[in-house]
Amino acid sequence: MYWKETVRQMDDIGIGSLVIVCLISIFMGAVSAIQFAYQLSGQLVPKYYIGYIVRDLTIIELAPTITCLVLAGKVGSNMAAEIGGMRQKEHIDAMEIMGVNTSAYVILPKILGGLFAIPLLVCISALVGILGGYIATVPTEIISDIEYVRGARSFFHPYNVFMMFVKSVVFAFILVSVSCYQGYFVKGGSIELGKASTAAVVYSDILILLADYVIALLLMA
Amino acid sequence: MIRAEGIFKSFGDKEVLKGIDATFEAGKTNLIIGRSGAGKTVLLKILVGLLKPSSGTIWYDKDNFSLLEGRKLREIRLKVGMLFQGSALFDSLTVQQNVQFPLDMFTNFTYKEKLNRVNECLERVNLENANDKYPSEISGGMQKRVGIARAIVLNPTYLFCDEPNSGLDPKTSIVIDELIKDITIENNITTIINTHDMNSVMEIGENIVFIHDGYLEWNGSRNQVLDSTNMRLQEFIFASPFLQRLRKAALNNH
Ligand SMILES: Nc1ncnc2c1ncn2[C@@H]1O[C@H](COP(=O)(O)OP(=O)(O)OP(=O)(O)O)[C@@H](O)[C@H]1O
Ligand SMILES: [Mg+2]
After folding, report:
1. Taking CA B84 as the corner, what is the angle to CA B80 and CA B85, rounded to the nearest 5 degrees?
2. Cβ–ligand 1 contact at B41 (below 6 Å)
3. What residues in chain B have their Cβ under 8 A from chain A's Cβ atoms?
4. Beta strand B80-83 with B215-220: parallel, antiparallel or unpaired?
5. Global pTM?
């Protein structure tokens, strides 16, 4: 039962958010590439640095943070509403009476699903982001194909990818647990349910940004 | 057998239960009756542990239920079935999946065995051919019956029913009452039913706990109801002039 539910969550979170994550990532990469091209123009810095900067910016910061902020809005609010609805309609009480460990049954599959699916989404987001930078700069002849690729392959530190995974796992845990908490302990009626769903997004976002800062301090300083 | 000893419960400064002592015996249909808002649902939720009493103790046979926590609590819950006032069926599961849910969670049955047990229970509540419907697609009375089927699917030792026949027509009510009574006797279950349905009281009230204003006002069996001189009980049970005339007639025939 738990396994089935976990797979359902992975599918919900992962496949369900793939399109929006790709869409956002492509623009995220494209805009940063164009902006760096603009900032670097007329300076002595070689152009292939655009590829390099877009790559690291995406991997270290944009992919994990933006993706998780967006997922907090999409997945987090959805989880809070789903669990909150179960609480209000006495589904959770009914399970509790049957002897089900409801906090485990309701929340654990979501946490596991999130911890598995969200880092994968972040990976995809980073890839698509770098691709977005390419699409924005190469066909428009801001820089050449060879330069962008050269940049994207220069000064590569695997440690940055490690940071990306640390961030995505931490953010995933934050957004799922905060949202589940908001839903699980909801009281009252549909107005409170709406509020819980909003609170899930707001608190997840704040905590994600704080965690982002702390991780940056710990892993980069 | 379930015993409640000195149960108090307040929400904020609103006292709902003010010291309830009652024994609910096995193999009997125990009724909790009282006006709407008297605290029946609150008492039932305290008895099953969904609410914590402000003070008081609850005994499930020899176990002090109030002290149980975590795994121990869940073990005893495997022996508990409950029908909620609003049925509380899982609305994204079909009727069959709803009844099957406890089996999925707690047994290693094969799909075939589960299906057999589910159908057995659904048959028991006279609900055939509804397996693939969703709760929103069936009537309130049918939902209640699915709720009962789900509550009995694991052969409970303790069965709780919150208003099993509110919102049902008299005939269906009687069917459901009889059903609960039969199941209770067959499996020697400790059954506790919340109701304010007078038919139920007179038909299946083997042990009646009457709650008024947070106190246990009267305790006895249906046979003692007619003879009781408790004014509040009489007012509650024979609320309409019609029922009062019936009572007079019944007493004259005694
Ligand atoms: N969670 C709660 N918070 C505050 N007050 C509550 C809560 N639950 C119940 N009450 C109060 O307790 C009293 C008893 O409620 P309860 O639901 O037990 O009534 P009842 O006897 O089941 O009535 P009915 O027959 O209408 O179902 C009511 O006055 C209600 O306002
Ligand atoms: Mg009630």
Report:
1. 150
2. yes
3. 48, 50, 74-78, 80-82, 84, 86, 88, 90-91, 101-102, 104-106, 154, 160
4. unpaired
5. 0.89
Helix (H), strand (E), coil (C) string for chain A: CHHHHHHHHHHHHHHHHHHHHHHHHHHHHHHHHHHHHHHHCCCCCCCCHHHHHHHHHHHHHHHHHHHHHHHHHHHHHHHHHHHHHHHHCCHHHHHHHHCCCHHHHHHHHHHHHHHHHHHHHHHHHHHHHHHHHHHHHCCCCCCCHHHHHHHHCCCCCHHHHHHHHHHHHHHHHHHHHHHHHHHHCCCCCHHHHHHHHHHHHHHHHHHHHHHHHHHHHHHHC
Largest CA distance in chain B: 60
Chain A nearest-CA distance from B109, in A, is 13
Q: pLDDT tens across A203-213, in order?
A: 999 999 999 99
Residues of A with CB under 8 A from a CB of B: 1, 89-91, 93-94, 96-101, 105
Tell me whether residues A98 and B48 touch, CB distance under 8 A: no
pLDDT tens, A90-117?
999 999 999 999 999 999 999 999 999 9
Selection from B92, B59, B136, B120 nearest residue A82 by Cα: B92
Q: For B94, phi and psi rounded to 5 degrees?
A: -75, 170
Domains and CATH numbers, chain B: 2-227 (3.40.50.300)
What ipTM, to 2 d.p.? 0.88
Q: Do B84 and A91 touch (CB under 8 A)?
A: no
Handedness of CA B117, B121, B124, B130 (dihedral sign): negative
Contact list in B for residue A90 (CB cut-off 8 A) is 84, 86, 88
